[in-house]
Amino acid sequence: MSKCPVCDFQNEDGALFCEHCKSDLGAAELAAAPVAVHAAAAVEASAVPDASVAEVACPLVAVAVAEAAVSEAVPVAQLDAGAVAVAEVPIAVAVPLPDAPPVTVAPEMPAQKPSTAPDISLPSAAPVDAAPAAPAGEPARLPADAKPKLVVIRGQRMQVEYPLYEGDNYLGRADEKAVDIDLEDQEPPDRVWSSRQHALITYENGQLTLEDLNSTNGTFVNRMRVHPGQKRPLHVNDVIQIGTVHLKVMV
Amino acid sequence: MAAKIHIERMMYRNSIAVPGESAASYALVKLIPSGEGPKPLGLNLALVLDVSGSMYEEDGTGRSRLARVQEAALAGIRKLRPEDTLSVVAFAHNAQVVLPSTPLSDLAKIEDVIDRIDMFDVDPGGTCMDQGIALAMAEVEKSKAAGRLSQIVVLTDGETSGEQICRQLAEQADQQGVHFTVMGIGTEWNASLLKDLARLAQGKWYYIDVCQAHETERIFLEEFEHLASTAFTKVEMHLWPVKDVRIKRVRQVVPEIKELPLTEPEDRHLAVAVGTLERDKPSRYILDLSLPKRPDGNYVLVQMEVRYDLGSGRAESTGKVPLQIQYTEAGQGYINAEVAKHIDEIQIYELNKNLQEAIAGNDQAEAQRVAETISRKGELLGPRGAKKTMLARQVLQELHVGGRVSKKTQLAVDDAARLAEEMPLPSS
To answer: How confident is the prediction for chain A on average, in pLDDT?
Structure first.
């Protein structure tokens, strides 16, 4: 139970406003910084609505089973290092026990890898379902079923996520022309620095690209300015800044 | 393909962690009419109009309230079809059926009665809305037929005698499948009575601001348009929460915010009376849930089904669909922006209820505190909350200057608080 700071009424954890005086409740404090596990959960989310059984086994089991089959069927020598890293780790992690540790610990499992695999040095551990860590300079290609999104890490409403769809995604403030990602609610009303058609993110062939649309105050990625006309490729965990709003690229 | 309703649902967060015994959560449910254009239902209407002395006031417009209502009614009935039927009841000190139930094909006769409504033998001193409603219910009963929507539209500008009878009549109407629409014109009518009547008879209430030039006509047109497009009736949302999941309340948020009555036909089976739906307008609802602690995994929280009648008398159904969520002890999932917006709007609506109580109870300090909270919250909504913010500021201004809030502002705030703003997000 959480106590209302204004009227002391006992509200349920997670309630957004007090049942009695209707003041805001800091439901945000329940939220630990959302962790990479949600990358995994989100990717499987599309499969979830179709299941109508009362309890569906942790979705990662399904992934692991599929990948385990792949790695056993294909002679190891033919897999490049990247593929092996992805295929091996889930086998160790995806134990379908109700009290299995959360998936975030996936990278720490090499000790349990099955003996069928030869001794190939794994690239530095990356979260299971995220795009493999990109070698420097090469744009990361997202897997075909990835669902990229922007997550607000600084703004009036934190942790809100905006999905990025195939094709063009316009960022800005909705006016006479609609935008796909409306920053209106994220900027403080006295410091509106975003333009109406501020920036454009294109998602094509697994590749995210950001372009500034001649905005008044500019668009920044990881604190560096993206100039109008410059097509800046985006990688997972890049932070885009528009005005005072920080958006992180995630899958 | 026959007309039907399509259900979409999403949680406030698609994955949650419950650290304690239980946690509150919210779900957004959208009902979207689909399939081949659903046919609007035939209408069986009654208009119950106040013709008491105060209806002759001109409010500075140069035309009496009654004249404006006559004009608005004539404009409204043009939305009706020849096979719809209309009856008209006038009330003041007594009540009279000035036009018995007549098909719209007889338009000339109907228009003539509306034109001459001030010339019937109704004593303008005093108001007996309860008698007016009773007469209208009898007229509507005569023209009732399967597949027709029965609706009584009541308009008044003042207090009435027989308030308790009015409420009883509304309950009776609901049992008979007749809906009410209530319109309060000016500022002297009893807001809590009219809102009660709308709620008891599953209808809508309107506030007609007499200082706005064409408000009466705008509202009549809006309501008649709404009636003429109704295609789904007896709409009910059925919910089967799984063990330990509790549904605290269900509110409609689009087209307007209101709490919906919940009944429990059987153990762990809840039924929500949604009312009627228009043929091409989606509606949205927020469910307030209480979720138990669970181990990590994906769980169905509630099975839901929507039943409705297309006018054939046969109950149609969407079939059961699940509402699901992921439990992850590691941390909360991200927030769905659409759901968050509607919850903000609900918060303002709830704050308004507190404000109305504070004003009615003459609690100036509380009214000020609540108005300040609404003003701050409205600001966060940006231009979409502009009207609510402005009205909250007006309340604060009036309190500061005169220590009280004018009835006009009070009504305007009440009216604005229940309107959700449309959201321009890419998903439907």
So the answer is: 66
